Hints:
Elements: H1 8-31, H2 35-55, H3 64-76, H4 83-101, H5 109-134
Helix pairs in contact: 1-2, 1-5, 2-3, 2-4, 2-5, 3-4, 4-5
Amino acid sequence: MNGAGKSDDESIEALLQKADQALDDASYLLEDDRVEAAMNRAYYASFHAARAALLTEGEEPSSHAGILSRFSYHFIRTGRISEEVGQVLARAETDRNRADYDAFSVFEIQAAEDLVGDVSQFTEVVRQVIEHQKE
Length: 135
């Protein structure tokens, strides 16, 4: 059991739903040329998916850096997720930090569209790894 007395399976599903919602939000924001907000939501989609994957390993890191580190340890280092796909999480965090905190950062719409597409692929791969672990 973890947060709020929910089972890991319930928490994993809830986190995957949060990831899907954040991706939907990112897409809507892109339609309105809200580039920085879309990058924020794309990052949180990857973040929630990574948290769900880590629950399958019995881990609940308490920081963003912990999520990245432990995700890399369990999934990229072991080859369950390719390095190329795994790097999306770190790139999304870097882009989100620039978009949210750097007053002078400017992103083109194409960069945000690319990130949203890559995060969509990332979340799908994570979902497949989680499903494979349940078998």
